[in-house]
Design goal:
Layout: H1 5-31, H2 35-44, H3 52-60, H4 68-74, H5 82-94, H6 99-114, H7 120-132, H8 137-181, H9 185-213, H10 223-238, H11 242-257, H12 264-286, H13 306-318, H14 328-338, H15 344-355, H16 365-405, H17 409-435, H18 439-454, H19 460-475
Helix pairs in contact: 5-8, 6-8, 8-16, 9-15, 9-17, 9-18, 9-19, 10-11, 10-17, 11-12, 11-17, 13-14, 13-16, 18-19
Length: 476
């Protein structure tokens, strides 16, 4: 005899209610809290997308959001008090040497492999989400694990604890550099050699980022994404606005990857031709744009105001697709090329100092902000660049996980990520052109370049910088 579906649903619902009530009674006994306190706590952790109508609407347009039960089944993280979460990730931050790969591997070993907060499969899924979304990946992971253990407050404290040691160290080094280093003869000798090594590091980072961003889902080189990279490189050379080029590249890749669209490649090529055509028409009628490539007062006469520094940090944080080095073209254009309030050598020095610190690499903006407007400038620019990393997790990790799975959003973000490689490549060539001035510079650059490509240990970059700093005292 077949059971009535309605009866089965009611019975399952009653069973769930009984289990929930039993669990609540046990929690009351163990914790000594009242029923009202337990219910209030449960209400605070209701899934943000639990409304059936909202869920049905989002799924209808292609977003698949997990239920609360599915999320709870994947989460084995203990509920920790806020101060313990902060302390845990502060300790991670103190050991955050070696860049994002080493930082993420450290968290994975301790929280996934050893303590089993989540499964390895779940970790890999979250990693793929953060690789697509902008923001420093290691910081996003700190926020994510904090979220699992302490909700949104835990997410904020996890991220804060992770970046605080690096920020404090960079703030101290910014003060030392600006106060004693810029005009000091001996410091400049070391940093001149270090700048050649940093130029080599940017080329190495571009290669590593391209190795992932320019591949398709079968992990093979994608000619379509290679074309997007070249498109963004060439349009940047002629002076097309960064964000117009990135948006066009995202739309082009959406056409490339959605096979259901007829004549999709022709539409993609048409987008590129229209962008270049409108730019050429603008140049003929109004002349080549001379203002900041980013807009507003960033890089202009008020480029070092608190608001401008915050905006620059926020915009840079929104374009960190795949790694911290992707922020370089935007900050370089605004602060060095257009604004002129930061020298190119100081920009490279900031990158060099960051690579020797236990911190996410985007923390180089602390020194940039310090040069712009002192301690407060360093603080507001650092806050701006980390807001996206915190927001994506605190606002709703599950929502953004659903977004990157959407058949239109995912290829758009992939296209932007491929196009950013073109911008970074152009920036790398600009650095080499300005830094390598003599035969000694060329030798220092080539030696650093070979060492970085041959040795892949996480300590290679700091060691190369230290050796370059010592050699600079002899070479220059």
């Amino acid at each position: 005899m077949t059971e009535d579906p309605e009866y089965t649903a009611v019975a399952e619902s009653a069973k769930t209610d009984d289990e929930r009530a039993s669990g609540t009674e046990i929690e009351m006994i163990e914790s000594g809290k009242s029923l009202e306190d337990i219910e209030e706590k449960n209400e605070k952790h209701v899934h943000p997308w639990s409304c059936p109508m909202l869920r049905k609407f989002l799924e209808r347009i292609g977003f698949h959001i997990k239920t609360q039960a599915q999320m709870d089944a994947e989460n084995n993280a203990p509920r920790l008090p806020p101060w313990k979460i902060f302390k845990l990730f502060l300790w991670f931050g103190c050991r955050a040497f070696g860049g994002p790969v080493a930082q993420i591997a450290l968290m994975k070993q301790e929280l996934v492999v050893d303590k089993k907060w989540i499964t390895t499969e779940r970790f890999n899924r979250v990693y793929s989400v953060y690789q697509i979304l902008p923001g420093p990946e290691a910081t996003e992971f700190a926020c994510y694990f904090g979220l699992l253990s302490g909700g949104r407050l835990g997410s904020f404290l996890g991220g804060l604890g992770f970046i605080l040691p690096g920020f404090a160290g960079m703030l101290l080094w910014s003060y030392i550099y600006v106060t004693f280093g810029i005009d000091n003869e001996y410091v400049q000798r070391s940093f001149r050699a270090v700048q050649n090594a940093v130029a080599a590091m940017i080329f190495r980072a571009t290669y590593k980022l391209a190795d992932g961003a320019l591949k398709n889902k079968k992990k093979k080189f994608s000619w379509d994404k290679g074309l997007l990279c070249m498109f963004c490189f060439l349009t940047s050379v002629i002076g097309l606005n960064f964000f117009i080029a990135l948006a066009v590249a995202g739309v082009m890749n959406t056409f490339f990857e959605n096979k259901s669209i007829p004549y999709r490649k022709y539409f993609a090529y048409l987008c590129a031709l229209m962008a270049i055509g409108f730019y050429v028409l603008y140049v003929i009628l109004a002349g080549r744009p001379s203002g900041s490539m980013i807009g507003g007062d960033i890089g202009g006469s008020e480029g070092t105001s608190y608001r401008a520094l915050f905006e620059l940090g926020l915009i840079a944080g929104m374009v960190t697709f795949g790694g911290a080095y992707t922020t370089l073209p935007f900050i370089y254009a605004a602060a060095v090329q257009s604004g002129g309030w930061l020298s190119q050598r100081a920009f490279l020095d900031a990158i060099a100092i960051t690579n020797m610190m236990p911190t996410p690499l985007v923390m180089f903006v602390t020194l940039v902000g310090y040069v712009g407007h002192g301690v407060i400038g360093a603080i507001v620019m650092s806050i701006g660049i980390f807001i996206p990393a915190f927001s994506f997790t605190i606002i709703g990790h599950e929502f953004f996980e659903a977004i990157v799975d959407n058949k239109f959003v995912e290829p758009f973000l992939d296209g932007v990520g491929a196009a950013v490689i073109g911008l970074l490549t152009l920036t790398a060539f600009q650095f080499v052109k300005s830094v390598v001035e003599t035969g000694v510079d060329a030798v220092a650059f080539l030696l650093a370049f070979c060492a970085l490509f041959h040795f892949t240990d996480k300590y290679t970059a700091p060691l190369v910088l230290i050796v370059a700093a010592i050699a600079g005292q002899v070479l220059y």
